[in-house]
Amino acid sequence: MELAYKRVLLKLSGESLMGNQGFGISPDMLQHYARQIKQLVEIGVEVAIVIGGGNIFRGLQAKNSGIERVQGDYMGMMATVINGMAIQSALEGLGVYTRLISAIEMKAIAEPYIRRRAIRHLEKGRVVIFSAGTGSPYFTTDSAAALRANEINADVILKGTRVDGIYTADPEKDPTATRFTKITFSEVIALGLNVMDMTAFTLCRENKLPIIVFDINNEHNLLKIVTGEEIGTLVGVRG
Questions:
Q1: CATH number, span 7-236
Q2: In the chain, where are the structural domains located?
Q3: Would you say the C-alpha torsion 72, 154, 200, 226 has a positive or negative sign?
Q4: What confidence category does residue 104 fall into, taking pLDDT thresholds of 50, 70 and 90?
Q5: What residues are paired with 53 via a beta bridge?
Q6: Does this model's pTM top 0.85?
Q7: Which of the 8 DSSP states describes residue 52?
Q8: Which residues pair with 205 in a beta bridge?
Q9: Distances, alpha carbon 78 to alpha carbons 35, 85, 190, in Å
């Protein structure tokens, strides 16, 4: 099978793991993601994952709880490790080899981040799960995704969302909103569209790393994207 993308970084939000719950991790959503990722591994795609922690704790919540911003950000990083462990367990339950890598050292449950080792895992067909963000406060998991994707020389960032791409407005609020199939980094900025936070977005733009925003809830979309179908919205240097 011919692949459009050989090495991908999949960015998932922590909230997406909740499913229909208001909090925590839905076993059904874990299996939903694990099945899709396994499909990619089976056709030879090298897969890295960055997942948020918003289903457990968001650093931004700390401001309203009396917790210092930096402390809150570290708590958010810990939440991403929990989610990473959950995805690792689901994937290994399906027979997929994985490595959980943490930007904050915790020897008992995850490897420390070493770029060459992470790339070697990918080359051996293991799914690499990057957790604990960048390891520093003030950076989101979007920034971690952009940083790691560039470091491992990924072909594309696949950002899974609840909607099927980037629209002129929020399609959940504005029924007249229309979807872009392709758009440039410059157009995203000019139109004020929310794709990733600006730190992450700028990093991708400077390194010409494309981003595809797509509906992760459709179980066939990941496979379609890596085999060349136009799914979601492609953000690139040229529209």
A1: 3.40.1160.10
A2: 7-236
A3: negative
A4: very high
A5: none
A6: yes
A7: -
A8: none
A9: 25, 11, 35
